[in-house]
Write a structure and sequence with these properties.
Elements: H1 3-13, E1 22-25, E2 29-31, H2 36-46, E3 54-58, H3 64-71, E4 76-81, H4 84-97, E5 102-105, E6 117-123, H5 132-140, E7 143-151, H6 156-159, E8 165-171, E9 177-182
Parallel strand pairs: 3-4, 3-6, 4-5, 6-7
Antiparallel strand pairs: 1-2, 7-9, 8-9
Length: about 180
């Protein structure tokens, strides 16, 4: 990681209101996000058993969960986001951290891949998707382990329709639900 570029990034972007934290070196070089505490608690939950796993983050924002996954031993971390401005910043952060994470600008609903991922994250994105249940079905076919969904409370009963084991549906720190659908 290029510390000089990380410091320059922090100084240049310190007035921005980031949704997620941007962490170059934990507790040393970082910018706090709007949901800083909740996001870090969720990251601790997700990265518990991530060693040697592959991860796809749909709606990756600035890549916080990608870099946390790699920091905790993930083999591969790929993120997509539809917003070109967000993706530009994520790519800049990614080039500074330089940990092997991959970030692409794509639409979640039309994105196609040819490989499966162990873990797929859909954190706080379902509210912008026209048909969330069909998108969830699509990504369930691309995971070999689980799909982790952060969603509005009103979606919880509809997620029960899936024929997959729903391991947990618990309240996330920001009063939304976190559902893990395992294969």
């Amino acid at each position: 990681m290029n510390r000089k570029k990380a410091i320059e990034f922090i100084l240049t972007h310190s007035d921005m209101n980031f949704y997620q934290p941007v962490v170059f070196i934990p507790k040393l070089l970082e910018i706090k996000g709007k949901w800083d505490q909740a996001t870090k608690l969720l990251a601790n939950h997700i990265t518990r058993n991530i060693k040697d796993k592959t991860i796809l983050d749909l709606g990756c924002n600035y890549g916080f969960f990608l870099h946390e996954a790699i920091r905790h031993g993930a083999k591969t971390a790929v993120g997509i986001d539809h917003d070109p401005i967000v993706v530009d910043i994520a790519i800049e952060v990614n080039s500074i951290i330089d940990d092997g994470a991959l970030i692409y600008q794509e639409d979640i609903e039309s994105f196609e891949i040819k490989t499966k991922f162990d873990i797929i994250l859909m954190l706080n994105v379902l509210h912008v998707i026209k048909d969330p249940l069909s998108v969830i079905n699509k990504y369930l076919s691309w995971t070999s382990d689980c799909l982790i969904i952060e969603h509005e409370n009103s979606l919880t009963p509809r997620l029960a329709e899936f024929n997959h084991e729903t391991k947990s549906s618990e309240r996330a720190a920001n009063s939304r639900n976190l559902t893990v659908i395992s294969l």
